[in-house]
Design a protein that fits this description.
This is Universal stress protein. Belongs to the universal stress protein A family. It holds the Pfam family Usp. This protein has helices at about 15-25, 40-50, 55-65, 65-75, 85-95, 110, 120-130, and strands spanning about 1-10, 25-40, 75-85, 100-105, 135. The chain contains seven helices and five strands; from the N terminus they run E-H-E-H-H-H-E-H-E-H-H-E. Strands 3-2-1-4-5 form a five-stranded parallel beta sheet, sandwiched between helices. Helix 5 (about 85-95) packs parallel to helix 7 (about 120-130). It has about 140 residues and is an alpha/beta fold. Helix 1 links the parallel strand 1 and strand 2. The two termini are about 20 Å apart. Helices cover about 45% and strands about 25% of the residues. Residues about 110-120 have low confidence and may be disordered.
Length: about 140
């Protein structure tokens, strides 16, 4: 069982399978850290329409409500981090920080683009993280 799990989430994805796997990996005293990164494209687009980055962060937090609710249903403690930056780089940076035992990700591209085995984010994290990475299809 893992004590500190990093869960990389995209607000556009269904994360149910990844959350189920997190519940299987968790034990007594496990803390799941939900990480969502606001990419530069999203940040720039919001600024162009007059939305401040703080408001965008608040919207992201609201979009993660279902994820938090599912973790609560599983009886898991969680933290939430919303950062501005490249999702690939932010996940790798946090994974390699020494604070986590495993990274859990949903694989976005596997269904929509059959020619790629992994999406670019999951591929980079799996390649560069120094801790175990579980990619859930």
């Amino acid at each position: 069982m893992y004590k500190n799990i990093l869960l990389g989430v995209d607000t556009q994805l269904k994360n149910e399978k990844a959350l189920k796997e997190v519940s299987r990996l968790a034990g007594q005293g496990t803390v799941v850290t939900i990480l969502n990164a606001i990419g530069e494209q999203d940040a720039q687009a919001s600024i162009k329409v007059g939305t401040h980055i703080d408001k965008l962060t608040e919207k992201r937090s609201q979009a993660l409500e279902k994820t938090r609710s599912v973790l609560e249903d599983y009886g898991l403690d969680y933290d939430q981090i919303i950062v501005r930056g490249n999702p690939k780089e932010e996940l790798v940076k946090h994974a390699n920080s020494g604070k986590y035992d495993i990274v859990v990700l949903s694989n976005r591209k596997a269904e929509s683009q059959k020619k790629f085995v992994l999406g670019s984010v999951s591929h980079k994290v799996a390649k560069r993280a120094t801790i175990p990475v579980l990619i859930v299809k």
